[in-house]
Every structure is written in C-alpha cells, then in structure tokens.
Amino acid sequence: MTDGGSSQWKRNSSEKGRALRAVKFAREWSWSSHGGLPRHGREILAMEEEVAQSLLDAKERAHQGGVELQQLQAELQKAGEDNTRLKASLLQLTRELEELKEIEASLERQEREVDEDTTVTIPSAVYVAQLYHRISKIEWDYESEPGMVKGIHHGPSVAQPIHLDSTQLSKKFISDYLWSLVDTDW
After folding, report:
1. What angle do CA 135, 139, 143 make, to 5 degrees?
2. Which of 26, 75, 162, 167 has the greatest number of beta carbons closer than 10 A?
3. What is the C-alpha separation between 11 and 48, in angstroms, rounded?
4. Do 2 and 55 share a domain, yes or no?
5. What is the span of the domain harbouring residue 47?
6. Domain contains 101
C-alpha cells in the first residue's frame, strides 16, 4: 500500500470514530437533558446512528476498493509489460526459427546434390576415367603442379613418360599429341 493510501485509511478510521462518538454524544445529551427522548426521537437517533455507521462502512469499503483497484492496476501494468516482453521474445524466436528452416532447406538441397554426385556423377566419372585408361593406356599423375600434364603411356613395346606444359603449349597440340599415342590397331 502506498503512503497516500495509508494516510487516507487512517483519516477514514479517524472520521469513522469521530462520527460514531458524535452520534452517541448527541443521543446521550438528548436523553440526559430532556429526561429521555420520546419514542420517535429515539428511533430517529437510532436511524441516524445506523445511517452514519452504514456511511462509514461504505466509505471503508470504497477505500478498500480503491486500494484493490490500485493493486489491480499495478498488476495490469506489470502484465502488460510482461506481455510486451514476451511478444518481443516470440518475434525474435520466430525469426530464428525461419532462419533455421532456411538453413535446413539449404542443407537438404546440398545433401541431395551430394547424393546425386555419389550415386550418379562420381561413378560415371570413374567409369569414363577407366574407359580412357583402357583406350589410351595412359596412367595420369594427378599430383602434378597446376598447368602441367604428366603421366606414363604404356605403349605396345615400352612405357613412355608424358610431361607437357599447358601454359606453353596449346590445348589442340596437347590433345593431338595424346591421341597420337593411342594404338589404332585393335
């Protein structure tokens, strides 16, 4: 409870006590000064006391309602702040989820490409390399420096090394030279 609410509650309690004392004093004064009140007078005083008590009770309930209202407003404000914070968090998590979905889709695409490479491209490339080897009888040096064409040609009579610099020679010359090594007698 805030200090303002506390002081108001004390003031209301003080007013309540003062009002009840005033009603009792008026009743006692009337009875003592007039040798007792007629029946109507006593009923009126009793009704006034009852109305005063009801009014004080209503004020007390209103004060308690005000305190509860302040508490509910504070809770509502806190809930609103929590709601805003949670919405921001949800938005951030939603963005992260979308990013993860995109990453997952990209990985699935890459996985399909790798699967295709391992099931189609690589075996067919290996088959073509084996076919070229059988036809040309050239054993390639795959460890050679870039720009160098190296290997060994296993001809009909003797093995012959191949050492060509592709930076110095044209692709056509290299191709013609390599095809010239292939035995045409089948």
Report:
1. 145
2. 162
3. 21
4. yes
5. 1-64
6. yes
Looking at the fold, whether 128 and 176 belong to one and the same domain comes out as no
**DSSP-assigned beta bridge partners for residue 21:** none
Q: How far apart are CA 78 and CA 20, in angstroms?
A: 41
Quick: pLDDT tens for 116-175. 877 877 778 788 878 888 888 888 898 999 999 999 998 878 889 999 999 999 999 999
Q: Are 149 and 162 in contact (CB under 8 A)?
A: yes
Distances (CA, A) of 169 to 29, 33, 86, 162, 180: 134, 140, 69, 13, 16
**Six-digit token string for 91:** 């938005």
List the strands of the sheet with 138-140, edge to edge. Answer: 138-140, 148-154, 159-165
Residue corresponding to tokens 């009014």: 55
Q: What is the pTM of this model?
A: 0.39
- Give me the number of domains the chain comprises: 3
